[in-house]
Specification:
The complex is a heterodimer. By secondary structure, chain A is mostly beta strands. Chain A is built from no helices and eleven strands. Chain B starts with a strand and ends with a strand. In chain B, 33% of the residues are buried.
Chain lengths: 115, 112
C-alpha cells in the first residue's frame, strides 16, 4: 500500500481565495483524521470521520473550514475564504477499525501558505 | 479535556549516548500512550506505544516507561545514531474516544 496520500504537497495562495486539500486514506482504514501543525500550537485535531461520517468537528477553528468524505477513499478539507493565519502544515491520517483511531498513519502533509 | 506536556523542547546528545524525553498527562482516564517520530518534510510515524496495563515496553534501542500514579511517561533511546535526529511527539488518549492529544514535540539532535 502506498500509505496515506495527500495533495498538493505545497499550496501558496492569496488571502481570500478558496483552498482545497485532498486526502486518500489507506485502503481498509475506517477512521480518517485531519490535523493542523503550527509552531505555536503543535498538532491539533481538526475533525475526524468514521466510515465516512463526521464524528467530531470540535477542532475546526471557524466556519471558514469545512471537511467532507464522500467515500471511503477520499476526503477534502476546504478553507473559504483563506486568511494568513491559516498558514500551517495540514496532515491527513487514517487508522484501522479496532484500534479505536489510536494507531495513526499520517500522510506527508500539505504545506499551506496564505499571503 | 486531556492536556499533555512534553519536555524538553530541544535535546542534543552525542552519538552513542542515551536520550530521554518526558511527558505528563492530566486525565487519569487516559490509557494509551504512543510516541511518534517526525522527520523533516514527512508526517509523524508511530515508533512505539504503551497501554496503561503495563509499566514498560522495549523495542530494540527504544523503550517507553509509564507511571500511572504520577501520570507521566517517558521515551528512552539508547546508543543513539544520526538517523535518530528528528522531532518526537508523545500523545495520550482515552480508549473509545478515538482522539489523540499530542505533546508539543521534542527536537532531538544527535551530534557525531
Amino acid at each position: 500500500d502506498a500509505g496515506v496520500i495527500q495533495s498538493p504537497r505545497h499550496e501558496v495562495t492569496e488571502m481570500g481565495q478558496e483552498v482545497t486539500l485532498r486526502c486518500k486514506p489507506i485502503s481498509g482504514h475506517d477512521y480518517l483524521f485531519w490535523y493542523r501543525q503550527t509552531m505555536m500550537r503543535g498538532l491539533e485535531l481538526l475533525i475526524y470521520f468514521n466510515n465516512n461520517v463526521p464524528i467530531d468537528d470540535s477542532g475546526m477553528p471557524e466556519d471558514r473550514f469545512s471537511a467532507k468524505m464522500p467515500n471511503a477513499s477520499f476526503s477534502t478539507l476546504k478553507i473559504q475564504p483563506s486568511e494568513p493565519r491559516d498558514s500551517a502544515v495540514y496532515f491527513c491520517a487514517s487508522s484501522l477499525t479496532g484500534t479505536g483511531g489510536e494507531k495513526l498513519f499520517f500522510g506527508s502533509g500539505t504545506q499551506l501558505s496564505v499571503l | 479535556g486531556e492536556n499533555v506536556e512534553q519536555h524538553p523542547s530541544t535535546l542534543s546528545v552525542q552519538e552513542g549516548d542515551s536520550a530521554v524525553i518526558k511527558c505528563t498527562y492530566s486525565d487519569s482516564a487516559s490509557n494509551y500512550f504512543p510516541w511518534y517520530k517526525q522527520e523533516l518534510g514527512k508526517g509523524p510515524q508511530l515508533i512505539i506505544d504503551i497501554r496503561s496495563n503495563v509499566g514498560e515496553k522495549k523495542d530494540q534501542r527504544i523503550a517507553v516507561t509509564l507511571n500511572k500514579t504520577a501520570k507521566h511517561f517517558s521515551l528512552h533511546i539508547t546508543e543513539t545514531q544520526p538517523e535518530d535526529s528528528a522531532v518526537y511527539f508523545c500523545a495520550a488518549s482515552i480508549k473509545g474516544a478515538q482522539k489523540l492529544v499530542f505533546g508539543q514535540g521534542t527536537r532531538l539532535t544527535i551530534n557525531p
